[in-house]
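Exercise: predict the fold of this chain.
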Amino acid sequence: EIHNLLDAAGVARAKEGVSDNEEEIVKMAKEIGFPLVMKVVGPIHKSDVGGVVLNVSDEETVRREFKRMMQIKDTYAIMLAQQLSGTQVFIGAKRDDKFGHMVLCGLKDVKAGLAPMSKDEAHGMIKELKSYKIIQGVRGQEPVNEDKFAEAVMRISALVKVAPEIFEMDLNPLLGNKDNVVAVDARIRIEK
């Protein structure tokens, strides 16, 4: 449901899929594209049980890791996701009874504004961040595409306006590089 909401809002997200079938997982891996992350679905502490594999770069590894991971206690499926790189940024929203929705964005520090927001207002918020230099790309680090980041902030502000039942929303992290800003994980709390 969260994926459908992000797609409807036009917010880029990491491609992923879940299955308990080896052939289906291999097919998904080819559709998503390498490199991939593979994670067990079921166990709470995924890393502790060897349930997370990074940099999966071929079909042979997908098959081998699928077989191994399905043997891990409490595992009922395997999740595949695009392995992305970039700077971790954050977008959130929270409904306030007096003011409506506050939209937040940031990196190490956070700025907030009222929804709905124009792209210029979103740019303004990003530029006010103490960690703005990281977005610009300091010391040879790849910059974050500021335009895509501002657009995602604006789109989330529009989403909470048309879906006021969203009480709280976190896109954390989004990975930003010079080309794009992509949501890797998202959580939404609905309250009527």
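Check your answer against the key: The first helix runs from residue 2 to 9.
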